[in-house]
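Running co-folding for zinc ion.
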Amino acid sequence: MAQQIRVLGIESSCDDSAAAVLTVDDQGGADILSSQVADQSLLHAAFGGVVPEIAARAHTEKLDIVITAALADARLTLDDIDLVAVTSGPGLIGGVIAGVSYAKAIAAAKDLPIVGVNHLAGHALTPRMTDGLAFPYLLLLVSGGHCQFLLVKGISDFHRLGGTIDDAPGEAFDKTAKLLGLGYPGGPVIEAVSVNGDASRFDLPRPLIDRDDCDMSFSGLKTAVRRTADQLAAAQGGITAQDQADIAAGFQNAVADILVDKTAKALAIAGRLNGFAIAGGVAANKQIGDKLRTLAARHDLPFVQPPMQYCTDNAAMIAYAGALKFMAGQSEAADLIARPRWPLDISVQPMLGSGKKGAKA
Ligand code: KG4
Ligand code: ZN
């Protein structure tokens, strides 16, 4: 008979404080009993990006609230929980410490086992949690902090085939929106204004597209957007709503082209697969999702796009990954530490020159 446990998951590695309660069995089956996310975007909006110190403070306030809400929503108390799973890296260290400390306190008070989960493993295992996708599969993780192709072969067997060498695409969406004066977060607003834009008006670059590997770069694209906007502003004394829409559409098209081209290359080197999945906030983009779905169909591969609330940061994926790790006998003792950097695949070199803060993984 399959082993089954009830797990409380906690996530606080970026700008979402999240908690979830799941029942997970050792065959990979999952029942998500509750999943709560307290979004901090309003706190960071004025800065056009996540401010680590503000995020860490907000986590210390919000974790208690989301954990209480997740238990209430599942109609359970801590006495019904068998395991605490918490994101212990990679991420903004203040937030990770807040989550790990909270998880340790619960585990100590209730004498529960605790397991530290790699945030990226949570994303990587999500298509299995939501759609039962069998190993091996290819995952493209595209968010504000991450951008990589992962060949997912088992619950702790991940191979990174490539990733960004500078910005993550979500970061590029956010920065482009900021310089066009469109607000934060950038992805949804760029997508909305692009509908009225002419993507072919400006010639924007597709960096690294002529290379055979599946590494990506978005920083040159962002610079080209800035140059285009500056030139227009200098020539016209400002940019119009139509200029904004045309630049946004051209930018979105360029990101979609890069992701499609590099996914084709990743599929070519991945070997036999049971499916291709996407995750991360940028996966919410319809144009990008549609183009990747078409590509998967051309390769006769099932395409999995988990429900949006599990594509973006959440604690259900952390509970799930933690439960599988625990049932496989891979849990840590209560001295688990918070880690700002934690590559999933240590067999490949960390990405060089990755962004201002360096590669997270
Ligand atoms: O996965 P996520 O919620 O958080 C992390 O970064 O881990 O992703 C947030 C990112 C933001 O940069 C946001 O601009 C981007 O995802 N995003 C989008 C869309 N919705 C959110 N990018 C493009 N199109 C969208 N519709
Ligand atoms: Zn994430």
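Result summary
Strands lie at 4-11, 16-25, 30-39, 83-89, 114-118, 137-142, 147-154, 157-163, 276-279, 303-304.
Confidence is low (pLDDT under 50) at residues 352-361.
Job closed.
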